[in-house]
Each structure stands twice: as C-alpha cells, then as structure tokens.
From TrEMBL:
Transmembrane segments: none annotated. This is ARB2 cotranscriptional regulator A. It comes from Sander lucioperca (Pike-perch). Residues 10-307 form the Arb2 domain. Residues 179-209 have a biased composition (Basic and acidic residues). One of its GO terms (cellular component) is nucleus. PANTHER family: COTRANSCRIPTIONAL REGULATOR FAM172A HOMOLOG (PTHR21357:SF6), FAM172 FAMILY PROTEIN HOMOLOG CG10038 (PTHR21357). One of its GO terms (biological process) is regulatory ncRNA-mediated heterochromatin formation. InterPro entries: AB_hydrolase_fold, Arb2, Arb2_dom. Residues 164-214 are annotated as: Disordered.
Amino acid sequence: MKKDEPPFTFPKTLEEFEYAFNEYGQLRHIKTGELFVFNAREDLHRWNQKRYEALGEIITQYVYELLEKKCNMTKAILPVDATEDEPTSFIYLSPDAMSNPSKLLVLIQGSGVVRAGQWARRLIINQDLDSGTQIPFITRAMEEGYGVMVLNPNENYLEVEKPAMSSPLPSATEPSDEPAEKRERKDDKEGKKKREFYEKYRNPQKETETEQIPIRENGSSEEHVLYVWDHFVSKAAAKNIFIMAHSYGGLSFVELMNQREMQVKNRVCAVALTDSAHNIWLQETSKSTQDWMQQHCCNWVSSPEPLDTPLDPMLPDCPQVSAGTERHELTSWVSFNTIFRFFSEVLECPSSSHHKCLNTHS
C-alpha cells in the first residue's frame, strides 16, 4: 500500500534535532545518548538522506563557529575584490597567518560536501570532531608556532532557486495546438522517467529546482587553490610554508605546482598528503616537479600495514607510507602525529637534505 512521503522540512539547529556533541566531541542524542540514526523512518530512503543532509548543513555552521571561537580564526572573503552583488566564498586565517615570519601551515581538504575545517562529514557525525575536522591540526599548529590558513575548495558556487517559468503563448506562425502537443509529449517523457522512482508514494515531495552561479576564479578546487596561493599564501611573510592536503586536495596541489612551479619550490618546505588523488601522468607534471616532490612530499595512503611502513609508489613522484588505516577518510587523523613529526624533521634539516629526512622518518 502506498504511503505519504513526509515533507522535506527539518530542524535548523542541533538542539531542534535533539542532538549535541558531548565532552569527547561525539554526536549523541540528547535524551537517549545514542549515536545518530540514519534510517529514522523505514522505507523512506530519500527522506532519510534529506534529513542527513540537513544535519550536515548544521554541522558545517557548527564547525565554522569552532574555527572562529575555539581557534580564533577569521574569514577572508573571496574574491578579494568582490562586488556587493556577486557570489562569494571565504577561507579562514589565524591572526598571524599573513604576518608570522617563521612558519605557515596551509590545509586543503578533499572534494564533496565538506567545507572549511572539515575532513569528513561522516566521521564528524558517526565518530567524533577530532577525526572528522581539522581542529586538532589547527590547534597543534598554533601551539607549535605556525600561522594557519584553512582553505575552502568546495565552496564553488551560489545555489539559487530557479524562477517559475510561465507557459509561452502560441506563436503566430504555428498552429495554436502545437505548443500544447509539445508540452504533452514533454510531460509524458518526464513522467515516465519519474514514475518508477515515485510509484511507492502517494504524494512524493517535489524538490526545488535550482541553478548554480559560479564564484569568480573559484569555480573549482583547482581554481580555488591557485587563487588563494596568488592572493594569500604567496604574500604571507613566513619563511617556511608547509602544506597538508587530503584526497582531491592533493590533486589541486599538484595542479598548483603545474601553474606556479618556481614559486612553490621557492616557498614551500614540505607537503604532507593523505590518500592523495593526484596523478602526475594524467596531470602532465614536469620532470622537475616530480623530482621536487620526491624530496619534499610524503603521501600517507590507506593500507593494512602499520603506520609509517614504507610502500612502493605506483608512480615516480613522492614517497608513500602507510597511514595505518584502510579507511580513506581516516588517513589524515590516524597520521596526525607523524605528519607534525615529519614537518619538524624537515625544519631541522638543511634544504638540500629534505629527502634524507623523509628516509629517516619513513
């Protein structure tokens, strides 16, 4: 028997969802203390997914608050010369991100729904804030004297509701019944495609139609990383710049090297990658870039081997070691301490011996 699909209206705050983060940074139900339950309603997968996405949006804002209140970071609007009526994005800067004369850490997340300050939404919801957010990396970096920049490579467009389209009047050059026939054929075609999906509901909810307005010079992760390099990282005072990039963030970093090879080589001391999605052949990186990556980068990849076990790289770009986990989304968190040790070892070595530090570390 068909059932009514509930409307897509969900709480706007964690409190209204009846969830909260406990003292260990774990999301728990306020009344029962239980973990978040995805299947809140049986046989309503689309509704459950929409509910999960609504919670995810709340968590995004929650992480922004942590960046601002716990980490004392501030937003920098992109593009830097944005007009009042164009869509914008932002990154987060520590108070000394541009002025710290010694060290700067740049954090680049992977692709998907995650926004500034997050590694993986699933970890935040199902595990804890430490594993799913960049907060531990930010606080540790600040404790060790780094300025910090938190990039936001997935905030690429403003999504707006499409205006309602009025039915066109029949053209004077066409028979008056032709537009109606066209509309009827179109309705039949669309209806057939949707029928199978909606057949179990008596009143399926209609989703709002939207369109995307790209953010100027930040319409993709690659564009964003290049833009932030040109307008922020390259202008920072730090003598030693370190980059940490997860998954697709690694691909965006390699694309940055393709576009700004000499600048990156002159400013960046070391790069920590976690399960990076880059491919030096598909991205057509130069031999000189590959050689530089061999000496200055290390990729912690998902593997059943113990943490830091050296692995044979598939391509001749940078050393690979085990992240100590087979779960892609956990690679950054599990390798947290060893990444900071890697950065410290690089600082202790002369620039000509960075590769020796890597070998010692591995």
